[in-house]
Amino acid sequence: MAELDTFTDLLDYPMYVVTAAAGDRRAGCLVGFASQCSIDPPRFMVWLSKANHTYTVARTASHLAVHTLRDDQKRTAALFGGRTGDDTDKFEHLAWRRSPHAPAPILEDAAAWFLGRIEGHTDGGDHVGFLLAPVETSRPGPERPPLLRLSDVLDLTPGHPA
Fold first, then answer.
1. Which residues of 59-94 are buried (b: 16+ CB within 10 A; e: fewer)?
2. Cis bond leading into 41, ω under 30°?
3. CB–CB of 20/58 below 8 Å?
4. Of 17, 27, 18, which is closest to residue 70 (Cα–Cα)?
5. d(CA 86, CA 160)
6. What is the average pLDDT score of the chain?
7. Concatenated DSSP letters for 13-81?
8. 115-134 burial by CB neighbour count: b if 16+ within 10 A, else e?
9. d(C-alpha 60, C-alpha 57), whole Å
10. Once rounded to an integer, what is the mean pLDDT over residues 77-99?
11. Left, alpha or beta for 151 (phi > 0: left; psi -120 to 50: alpha)?
């Protein structure tokens, strides 16, 4: 079996916080596997680990919110990447709101965000891809801030069970 490490070790892609809500449950996690995958119609794919609490909520959600973080938001990344929603309310001390379009929590302090309707799922092994159609996006800021990247969070220990 061919390993991808020699290829992926060169990548330093942006990190995202993905949030979901279904019923009275809300969840969010740090995600590195995500990308725009269509221009027309616009589509974005996020991949959630099957071991992650957010995946269990997202499976029954109608929408997901995808957030980019500034490079100075490592503390937020550590909360969403280093703690599990199985035993932590990650939203308790954060400013967030719900969109009128869907219940997925939107982080007020994100560099940018969009809310996407889940159009489908793809099983990719230990992760499941959620295909999103954007329904609402944040307004563009006055400048493009430096974003949090994989190299900024390599020292985080994942909070979800192995």
1. eebebbbbbbbbbebbebbbbbbbbbbeeeebbeeb
2. yes
3. yes
4. 17
5. 8
6. 92
7. -B-EEEEEEETTEEEEEEE--EEEEETTTTEEEEEEETTSHHHHHHTT-SEEEEEE-BTT-HHHHHHHH
8. bbbbeeeeeeeebbbbbbbe
9. 6
10. 86
11. alpha
The residue count for the chain: 162
Cα–Cα distance for residue pair 52/13, rounded to 1 Å = 20
Task: Report, in angstroms and rounded to the nearest whole number, the Rg of the chain calculated over CA atoms.
Answer: 15
Q: Which CATH number fits domain 14-150: 3.30.365.10, 2.60.260.20, 2.30.110.10, 2.120.10.30?
A: 2.30.110.10
Q: Which residue has the tokens 């740090």?
A: 30
Q: How confident is the model at residue 140 (pLDDT cuts 50, 70, 90)?
A: confident
Tokens standing for 2?
């061919």
- Comparing 162 with 96, the larger pLDDT belongs to 96
Nearest CA-CA partner of 102 in 122, 89, 118: 118
Which residues, listed in sequence order, are joined to residue 47 by a DSSP beta bridge? 129
- Domain range annotation of the chain: 14-150
